[in-house]
Write a structure and sequence with these properties.
Residues 871-1105 form the Penicillin-binding protein transpeptidase domain. The protein has 46 helices and 27 strands. By secondary structure, it is α/β, with parallel strands linked by helices. The protein folds into 7 domains: 36-199, 3-Layer(aba) Sandwich (Rossmann fold); 262-351, Arc Repressor Mutant, subunit A, CATH 1.10.10; 362-498, Tetratricopeptide repeat domain (Serine Threonine Protein Phosphatase 5, Tetratricopeptide repeat), CATH 1.25.40; 554-576 and 608-789, Biosynthetic peptidoglycan transglycosylase-like (Penicillin binding protein transpeptidase fold, Orthogonal Bundle); 833-904 and 1009-1052 and 1073-1155, 3-Layer(aba) Sandwich (Beta-lactamase), CATH 3.40.710.10; 905-1006, 3-Layer(aba) Sandwich (Beta-lactamase), CATH 3.40.710.10; 1157-1212, no CATH class. The strands form 9 sheets. Strands 2-3-4-1-5 form a 5-stranded parallel sheet, sandwiched between helices. It has a 5-stranded mixed sheet with strand order 9-8-12-20-21. The longest helix is centred in the first third of the chain and has 27 residues, at 362-388.
Length: 1212
Amino acid sequence: MHSDLNPYSLKNTEDAPSSFIGRADILGEVLRDLKTADAAGLFIYGQRCIGKTALLRHLVARLPERGEYLPVYFDLQGMAGLSLEQVLTRLIPEMVRPLNLSVPAERITPSRFERRILPFILSALPERRTLVLVFDEFDTPKMSGSRQAGQAFYPYIRKLFFTDPRRLKFIFAIGRRPGDLDRIYHSFYKGTKLHHLPMFTREETTELARLSERNQSLIWPDEQITAIREFTGGHPFLTRNLCRVIWEKNHKKETAGIPVVHFRDMVGIFPRAIKTSDRTFSLLWNGLGPWERVAASALAEAGSGGLDQETLRDQLEKSGVYPLNGGLDHAIRTLEQWGVIRAENSEYRIRINMLGRWIMAVKPFEQMRDELDRLASEFFETARALCRQDDFKTAIPLLHQTAELSPNHLKANRLLAKLLIRQGDVDGAVALLEPLYEFSFPEIHPLYLRALLLQARNAENAADRLAICEKILDIEPAHPDALAEYRMIFEDQGDRACEINDFDAALAAYARAEAHEKIRQVEQTLEQIAIAHRLNRRKKRWGLGKWFFRWTFALCLLAACGLFVAYAVYRHVSEDLPRISSLKDYRPPLITTVYAGDGSKIGEFYRERRIVIPLSRMSDNLINAFIAAEDARFFSHEGLDFISIVRAFFKNIEAGTVVQGGSTITQQVIKSFLLTPERSYKRKFKEAILAYRIDKAFSKEDILFLYLNQIYLGHGAYGVEAAAENYFGKSAKDLTLAECAMLAGLAKAPGTHSPVRRPKRAGIRQKYVLKRMAEEGYVSPKQARKAAETALKIRNRRENWYLKKVPFFTEYVRSYIEKEYGLEALYTGGLKIFTTVDPALQQAAREEVEKGLKALENRHKYPGNVKPQGALLCMETGTGFVRAMVGGRDFSFSQFNRAIQSRRQPGSAFKPVIYAAALDKGYTPMTMLYDSPIAIPDNGKWWRPGNYDHRFYGPIRLRRALAKSRNLPVVKVLRNIGIRYAVNYAHNLGIRSRLNGGLSLALGASGVSLLEMVEAYSVFANRGMRIEPVFIRKIVDRNGREIPLSRPAPEQAIEPATAFLMTSLLQSVVTGGTGYKAKKLDRPVAGKTGTTNDFRDAWFLGYTPGYVAGAWVGFDIERPLGKSETGSRAACPIWLGFMEKLLADKPVREFDIPDGVVYAKIDADSGLLAIPESPRVIREWFKAGTLPKRHAPRPTPEYLVTEPEDFFKAGL
């Protein structure tokens, strides 16, 4: 080797020898990534790394030997200035050369290449071969600045990248600047399935650049850095010093600052090194063939003197691993191509990279590592002794040295951090402990949190304190000191906001600080401001009008002389009064209640949420509270309380506004039942007359019964029972005194005194009611004070509370009742609807749908607010009861029920319908179909359906065609049995949607609902019996009578034998086909996946003995889910997770075998009944009468003809 040749100098890159050490490791990882099914490409990145191009060329040379790949190497370094068309023109000859193809003679453009030429090349690939495009210097077009190449090349390659990951893969190599990977890889291939094989880490690149620029010639190979890091175990001190020692001790002696590696430095080292347990050399040694090992060892032992051919031949002969008949030249050429040897003056010398340089330092550095550990332990013990003597100033430097020698010395770092905290250097302690916390040392956890807390307290501004507190709470959410500090920050912010009268900001800050007392103070301040504002307005408004009211009062006294006018009015008004007899037949609107299968309440429908109860079921305190607050003289007056009317009149005159009313409870009943709410004197006269009449016709208890069941008390509650349930979650009979007073206070103004929206005003009104009860003698003053001080737990009951349970199911029941019985029955009839849903299964279904959709979102990172949707429906096979139904991921966002209302293409999930129809036309599971291309005329064009993998299996049996979800056989089956017959057959299975009349029906091209598909599959599970899905078990009216339901009786849709054969076929889909994931249930399962074009819809429908369920995943808008999102990947995990929870506590059952089916052994070669001599036998189910009639022929024995007359005996 010449002394002026430096394989690691930038000046000699063309003649630099390629390395082979570490290549087996990298190549093995490349091949593993190429085999990954979802990996469409691979990035190889190495900054200024000699050996990257050699690695790629070696990869291209070795890939064809595996019989799986056809590689094409393409160097982009010299093509920066070319247009995209010119780049493709040069690439195509390289691609077609391995196949000996002739590309169509037309001008090559990106669009034509994508649509015509590339599919032509891929279709010509041998079976199970993959075309691998290797692009070296992939960053060149972008770096060159060429407008055409830079702007068009990368977007076009991105299009090709998604063509077919099984038939076309990419390998890209970058090797220019450290920023190229971020600039090209992350921005160009973000969100795709792309593997990255780094030849340098960022830290290694930084370290090598520092060492390289010292001499401006040294380029460290990636294998050496990787080996050094593995050798030192990633120890930063050892790695840094090992690199320095290798440079200074081994290369500093060379002339002109250029290190030259001669093999004589390695005499005797290499053979021993390759036999050690070091991982790098083990991989190298395992990557060489038998004769290559012998040749490499012989060359290494020969040293700089070289090795002649005879000696090498002798070595190979002794090993017995290489033939002696002239194969030496081939061995030498192979070793030269690999870069192992180089011919110089008839001598063969090994060529190695700098990896061998550090082998000589193995033993010294092992000793150095042990010495460093020993020194670190001594320093630590000395420092700990100094700490016991309170000599912290001397101990801290020793601990710093300990951490430098052994960065993961846990005790030293903990002691150092404690000392730094003690001396006030909290930032230094945090910086020291943070790396150890990231390495998950549990002993560091409390000390690290303590240091962070001190750092937060020492922070100068609130933003830094808040950030550190949030960091602590991310680590330990319930940390008490951090929570206190966190709250103190926001409490200070609230105090500052109050100082400048920014009460909204103060409330927000106090809410985050959970400072409830200060929140109350701010609310009181706001209330006082609001009251003062109202009083000021009232004074301005009524200042001059006060005298007007006083004069009006005087005039009213003078009107007493006009009593005769009142009598005339009475006569006039009494003529058109409503009849009070209607009150005796009190039938108010009642709540329609929906119950789940286990009897729990899941929904209510009403116009007025009212629950009518007798007075006996009301608390005495509740009745007394209403009387005291609304009509204290109720039991003594005769419908009108003239004393209260006069008192209210004077109070209103004094206040200048209406502050008190004089209506009795009887008058309020009249307002609710008999009169309109208009404000007029005529209505007032009518009210007074009716009040007198009602008081004479009804008892006081009857009037109270009507009043307390009719009154509106806010938040949709009519009557005291509904209000008690709304606000307190209990019956009116179980209310406490404080709760009774709160409800009674709502009668005057339920919106203004709402305990949910305005708790302060509600509390004031409650105290007023308690005061009135004490004044009237219903309770003692002490009881009233105690009740006023009692804190109430108010429930914020939403009117649509049922949405959290089974929203889509309940909404379906609502629409059904409205359609069948009308709006009045639904919202006022007081029906009790008992459904089939199971709340536990419904919750499991919602969890699994959301889990599956989140997994899908994590795989693809959809933009903006684009979110995939899903649906799931489960039904009992024997009864038709629908046990769970999820129509989407969020009912509050979208009420569209995708399980019932949506019509989507089912894809391959529709194939069982076609095959079931074929079985009734004489087909059997053993029927031979043909998976081969077909062209079908379609409106003047030709429709050419294909398979998912773009391959053809040729002759294939019906069972395997369904299990592997082959498209072409089912299209041909549909053509044979007839489209109209198949459409009628599908309708008979329960599919009511309109189906198209083309052969694409076989591939699920017509939109159907999930409910229809589940019902169709339930026919297979029910031995051919069709049972319509049942959502409602029974309906009971307000009087307790059951309402008859119109429900069709079960009918035999298909033969039990056909249903059983379909179950057997669908079991094959699970055991050996596209539904293989369902095998995890570990029990008999039958099912089928479904995927539409461009992965827009994903389905899985399956059943076990007892239950049938289906899952659908897709977007509401027409857009793909993402690459490879098939029914097996996107929908089957949702179905599987739900069924695992459903069947967790249920015994394993087998599918029943009906009469009319037989089980037979079939000769696989002939399709006839098997005989004992049949070489291959298949066991298959048949309908009775469809079994083959004949047996397979006996195999003909081989007959050797030795004599002429034997020829004529042959075959006899």
